[in-house]
Amino acid sequence: MRKIIAIVGLTALLFSCGGGGTDEPAPAPVAQNTAPSTPTLVSPTNSKLCVSNNLALEWNASVDAENNPIVYQTEIATDNLFTQIVKTNEGTTPTFSVTLEKGKAYYWRVKATDSKNAASAYSTTFNFYTEGVAIVNYLPFSPSLIQPEINATVSRASVTLKWAASDVDASDVLTYDLFLGTTNPPTTKVVDNKTLTFYEATSLQATSIYYWKIVVKDNKGGETIGQIWSFKTN
């Protein structure tokens, strides 16, 4: 009887001390890969009138915390939503040489992707104009949205619409037509030849989707139609 008790006690002691387990170390945690930093555009500067259509796009190099190799994806488009992309490029250096059409407005952006497919966000979008032949006036750039954000929901019966626009012809005076309504595309012009870049929309219907767009005009007959933006009301 005493021998049986001793054997049971020894067995319990072995298990309590880890007997019968494995001596292999636990696997080391796998380091999480992070995306490279977002590139910042350098040249051509925003809203620049370039003296040539042969350009060298430049940006600041991204940083990768794990020191993975980085590839840059460059997009050039004729609209600021990049639905009309005319040039793309992939490269390992923060520059891209390209030849574009003369006398046109272009928009460009860059993102960085490391060798493990972790990608940064796209850079901010810059625009530029290529020098044309015998061009007297350049069209304004497409307007950019400030507020409200696309598809944002507003909780009041009024909202302040804000936008921005620019023109490489520094002496040009810009004015704006604003179209607003619940149909897409909006056809009701609520502002004509406005010089300010904001508008207080009032008496909005509840639980509705509103669409709006800006037409930018210069004082030389140039006109650029912006894309359609939208917001919702509670």
From TrEMBL:
Signal sequence interval, chain numbering: 1-21
Domain Fibronectin type-III span(s) in chain numbering: 35-133
Protein name: Fibronectin type-III domain-containing protein
Record keywords, A-Z: Signal
InterPro entries: FN3_dom, FN3_sf, Ig-like_fold
SUPFAM superfamilies: Fibronectin type III (SSF49265)
Domain of life from the UniProt record: Bacteria
Record keyword DNA-binding present: no
